Structures are given as C-alpha cells and as structure tokens.
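Q: For a teaching handout, I want to show students what a protein-ligand complex looks like in token form. Below are the inputs, and the small molecule is zinc ion. Please produce the holo structure.
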Amino acid sequence: MLLLQGDSIAMTFDRSIKIAPSILAADFANFGAEIEAVEAQGADWIHVDVMDGHFVPAITFGAQTCKAIRPHVKTIMDVHLMISPVDAYLQGFADAGADFITAHYEAGPHIHRTMQNIRDLGCKAGVALNPGTPASVVEELLDMVDLVCVMTVNPGFGGQKFIDMSLKIADLRAMIGERPVHIQIDGGVDVTTAPLVAAAGADVLVAGSAVFRGGSVANPAPYGENIRNIRKVATENAAE
Ligand code: DX5
Ligand code: ZN
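A: Here is the structure, written as tokens, with zinc ion included.
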C-alpha cells in the first residue's frame, strides 16, 4: 500500500498513552541510528526539537536536518518549533516530511493563521503553551488543531526540572471534550511525573533524558526499559 504523508497507520486518533522520545537527548552525530534504536525499543512517535537561538536561548537544527532524518522515522515525525517568527518556515518543515508541526502560541501575533497554514500544508497542527500561558488561550483554536502541547519546563533545554501543570492539563482536557485533539506534555517527564500528567488527561508524553538515559545505539536495551517503565506508570494512572 502506498502511504502518503499524514496517512501512516498510526495516525488514527486515540487517547491511549504514547511515548515520544525527544532526540534532543540523543547522539547528535548519529540521529538516524538513534531513531531506529528507540523505535525498535517501542517509541510511538519521534519528537524533534527545533530551536532558533531567538525564541529560546539554544540553537539545534532546521528543516534540512528534519529532511535527512525523515527516512529513519517509521512512526510519526513530531516537529516542535521553538522559533519566532514561524510562518515563513512552515513550508520547509512540511516539505521535510513532518507529520505534526507544533508552533508556540507565544511565538507571534497570528497563531490562528499559523494553525491554518500548517493544515493547508497537509500536516497535523499543534499549538504549544509555555508554563506561564494559561490553557484558556487555545479555546478558539480547538476545532482547528490536532494537538495541544503543554510545556512542563520553560522551553530551550533538555533535562530541566518538571513544573507541575496538572490543573492546566485537566482544564484543557475538559475544554477539549470529545474533539480529536491530543494533549502532549513536554519537559521533565519521567516515571515520577508521568502518572501525574496522565491522570490529568495527557496522552502523548515527550521524554528526552528519561528515555535515552543509560543506553546507546550499541546498547539500546535501556531505551526499551525506560519507555516501558514510563508507559506502564502512565497507563496505570491514565484519566480514561
Ligand atoms: C525542551 C524541549 C523538550 C526536551 C525535553 O525545550 O522541547 O522536548 O527535549 O527533554 P527532557 O525530557 O529531558 O525534559
Ligand atoms: Zn519539545
């Protein structure tokens, strides 16, 4: 069967717990093999953090790197844009093969247009909220997005301490109702914090350091153990 972008088998909507390793915590000299290793060890999505040194302090990489890693991603390529401005760059990430493109509410004045643009490019649209931004700002967007990303750290670096946003997640879950919109959590997710966010209503858990800790391409078994452990405690505590 020919699979077009956005058509892959895992794209049907459900609220089961999904683990999305962030390659920010992988070996930057070996992304292809790292992605294949975490997918073989049970990753559901691959989370790709794009940083511009302007919206956030650090710089990672751009659309060319996303295009280069795309053939290694057999699941879902989930691109998190921590860049401002964002609109002029969307085409490049869509051409690179992103399944989801997430932009920050705080990155510019026209989030509604940005979400429209992402969908017009044939990708799933995500809106991310910094810890200081309330859930209520997405109310007018919920019929035009596929994902809301609740940041549980201030974006810019991996390995930061988790900020408890359980009330915000629960508010968002109630606001979403029956709409097919994922709630993604990004920042400081591990076996201690995953149950809290799952109980509040999250379904996509991004984890960088907590997945890649202790393993490598040569020794990938710890990746699998880390993914299974996070998935287990999250699923046991999931809201529904
Ligand atoms: C933070 C990034 C996250 C980061 C998460 O700005 O958006 O995706 O990689 O890393 P951990 O899981 O280590 O907090
Ligand atoms: Zn991220």
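A: Two things your students might notice: The chain is about 30% helix and 15% strand. The chain has one domain: 17-237.
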